Amino acid sequence: METLPLLTFILSVGIIVSLTWLFLIPFTGRLVQLKKLNQHISSSADLKALHTRLELLMLERRPFLNPAYDNHMLAEHLGMDAQVLDYFLHAYLETSFHQLVDAYRVQYACLMLQSEAAQDLPMDAIARASGFVDRQMFFQCFRRRTGKTPVQYLNYLVFAKNNLQVA
What sections of the protein cross the membrane (predicted)? Predict the structure, then answer.
């Protein structure tokens, strides 16, 4: 009879330990990334400056439009080692290279879809022009970032435009 409460206690402790590790491992991983990043970039002003340089590069030169663009190319553009770039992205921006590039690509696709000229283009052409290799990846990334497929987003824009003209 007393083994049941003991067994319940053991299972409860096991679940708590498992959940603690589930949440602690990503946090610990980020701490390791921050420590490694601090070995290369020590001041917060340098981190902010790097972040600004990254944003300017992406917005002005738009290297993400190249489907073959990779983290080594980005690191070269920023004048740093690719490993340090990865530390920066994961620890400071809390993202990965692919998530970062996909975000800029989706943002660019949204801007294209808002233009009158692009509304007549097939989605494959918009995907390629935004830097995506294929339509399926374009749709997946677009939906993940906006909550809508590109077609749904375009339909929403047309609907909103028509309702504004009526009012």
Answer: 6-27
